Amino acid sequence: MNLRKLILLLALFLATGVGAQIQQQSPYPKREFRGAWIQAVNGQFRGIPTEKLKQTLIDQLNSLQGAGINAIIFQVRPEADALYASQLEPWSRFLTGVQGQAPSPYWDPMQFMIDECHKRGMEFHAWINPYRVKTSLKSELSPNHLYNIHPEWFVTYNNQLFFDPALPESRRHICMVVADIVSRYDVDAIHMDDYFYPYPAKGMDFPDDASFARYGGGFTNRADWRRSNVNILIQKIHETIRGLKPWVKFGISPFGIYRNEKNDPLGSKTNGLQNYDDLYADVLLWARNGWVDYNIPQIYWQIGHPAADYETLVKWWAKNTENRPLFIGQSVMNTIQNADPKNPSMNQLPRKMALERAYQTIGGSCQWPASAVVENAGKYRDALVQEYHKYPALVPVFDFMDDKAPGKVRKVKKVWTEDGYMLFWTPPKAKDEMDRAVQYVVYRFGDKEKVNIDDASHIVAVTRNNFYKLPYKDGKNKYRYVVTALDRLHNESKSVSKKVKL
Predict the structure, then answer these.
(1) Residue 31 DSSP symbol
(2) SUPFAM superfamilies attached here (predicted)?
């Protein structure tokens, strides 16, 4: 190989190789994760009558859909309880006000949210907290709660109650809960946030001496043993999900700092609590081993924070994805309450969005909390609607799970009905569930316009229906409509077009 070729190959490697790749993306990417967390643990649902709560959730989803959100992360298990019908754990007090008390009139909030999200072309991620049982020891548990059957599986720490992460029985039960959800509900993902071993309280060590004596053989370092306990759970949850429905994703939204550089040369230039050392969550290992399908680090600080600078952390995570999809957890209130250091007349949203979209390894963001978007705090929702989410976006493809696109839609036709002028199509044939079309994308182009389905500005609908109502006016304007199919992991089929006069 001559020297010139060697130099060219080296340049190519450096341009596309290790590390975060900075790129000039379209201001309106066609593929982008646009999530929002809807929590229950803050009590916003507690004791609200069924019909009123249903309407509240519908209003929230309508607002979020209008703001371009395409994935909802909904908390369904805050305290080893359930915001869904479960034979394993009691109804949540965050729903009815009393743990174990079923809602009346009866309904299943998770099933309701799955249906409503899917109607709107949104993913539904079931958010569970693995170990937490009581956020306060003052809370009363239902008589049929697992704690009252097996109190030896649990530990008290800092006025809270937790499953003991060291026990095989704890892991077995948590995996049973995951299996129950995945097998009975059409969820798109199982999601866990930053709560693994509890956040450390000053001067208090986690009370696991007995468990370490019993299960710590082979470990001289208790911190390594604790991390191993969580690692085993994460691996088992991943295996549980894959064994039941290989299209269901498993995602984590960890605390925003993995490790500080002072503790690990590969860590970030930060000075705060750490996933690895304090919560015993080795998030990078999970991604590296393929046990999680996406990460959404909670980078809730502002640009310029002295201990945990947002820009520093975004760049660090962008370089440390371990070949798994990365999205950025965004604090709405922190973003609007802090000025851009380079432009003090503006809040930090423009700069944060520019940072996220500058890196090829970052595939989107998730808003915390969803309610702040709905309430348009600091005109945040307005900014999403008018600028950052101006056009729809499809959820990124998880090609390591499935990279085969579904077949094309068939028999596209335009039909006058009593409901108006409609575009109908027949779903493509499928060999199995992974191959089945579950959504359709409808694009519109002018009669003489070049068809480019990579341009998100032409998307007029993302729908689970096999029809689309055409906006007929007087029949004098010619358009070309294009329809594609999406499978469960958002692989997109080849397109089929139909000319229409509107």
Answers:
(1) B
(2) (Trans)glycosidases
Q: By the 8 A CB rule, do 123 and 71 touch?
A: yes
* Strand segments (E) across 181-248: 189-192
Using one digit for the tens of pLDDT, what is the confidence trace for 381-419? 999 999 999 999 999 999 999 999 999 999 999 999 999
Return the pLDDT at 10.
38
- The architecture in CATH of the region 22-386 reads Alpha-Beta Barrel (3.20)
pLDDT of residue 11 exceeding 60? no
On whether the CB atoms of residues 485 and 409 are closer than 8 A, the answer is yes
Helices (H), 297-367: 310-319, 332-337, 349-358
Sign of the CA dihedral 36, 39, 42, 45? positive
DSSP designation for 142:
P
CB atoms within 10 A of CB 138: 7
- Token pair listed for 115: 């249906």
Residue with tokens 């959820």: 395
Residue 405 burial (CB < 10 Å; 0-12/13-18/19+)?
buried
Which residue in 475, 478, 476, 480 sits closest to 460, CA to CA? 480
For domain 408-499, the CATH superfamily is: Immunoglobulins (2.60.40.10)
Q: What is the mean pLDDT of residues 191-198?
A: 97
Mean pLDDT in residue range 427-431: 96
Q: Which two tokens stand for residue 375?
A: 């309430």
Helix (H) / strand (E) containing 381: helix 380-383
What are the start and end residues of each CATH 2.60.40.10 domain in the chain?
A: 408-499
DSSP line for 237-298: HHHHHHHH-TT-EEEE--BS-S-BTTT-TTSBS--S--IIIII---HHHHHHTT--SEE--B
